[in-house]
Structure prediction request, 280 residues.
Amino acid sequence: MRETRLYGSEGGEAKAFPTPICKYNEYMHGVFQKTKLLSICRYYMENVKNTIKKLISVLGGRFSEELGIDLSKGISTEIFKWFLASKLFGARIGTNIAIKTYKEFERHGVLSPEKILETGWDGLVRILDDGGYARYDFSTATKLLEIMKDLKKFYHGDLNKLHEMADDEDDLEDLLKGLGKGIGDVTVNIFLRELRSVWKRANPFPSELVILAARNLGFISQTEEPLSALKKIWLAHTIKGKDFSDFEAALLRLGKDFCKKRKCDKCPMGEECGCKKVVS
Ligand code: SF4
Prediction:
């Protein structure tokens, strides 16, 4: 049973549900939930699709796509690339540095378990330093080597095999966390959320940043179960060419870069958020 109500943050500790900054949308969502009268919340309902569209187009969707990784066909080599990128994103480090470091791995052709093992500790530290990952270079190089050894030993270097061997969603997360000397909740969450439509057992809870942004935009209320509520919203307002992972990643970007830092004055979703509107 997945009863936990704690959520890992991007590079942070697990925390309880975040409180939304925007009380207006929380209020409007609550009104709609209670009354179910479309006329009362016409503005809210009509604008949900446009808000989602703008959110994805302005903030960006899946990080894997931004890195040129194609997860859509479930090919093992592409899934591994995303796994490596997720490991880099998982540290307390800027997104730009993680992206730059991934690009360094790509430039050196070090994008498989075998290549990582061949490159060795010194070579990995050099790649990590070139990408600006200097703060975590030694520890990340060590961890990557340990993870690759386990991946080769237990799953023939293929993450699809790891998925096949998992009994259910929780077991999948546990198998991933058990690689090397352990992979953190944040990294596993990042990795699995973009595999939702690829792996049937990939179904992690949304991160607290996703929930924070979703609540501020009025997509979900304080009392709703976040994942099923967000999926319901997405199914009712699907955008052509995009999937739920794009929606989730865009919310993550908003939560991380704006809501968490309380940058409402610079936020591209300020108009839609309604945080300047007054609730009596
Ligand atoms: S940062 Fe943007 S989405 Fe978040 S509360 Fe402020 S205006 Fe709303």
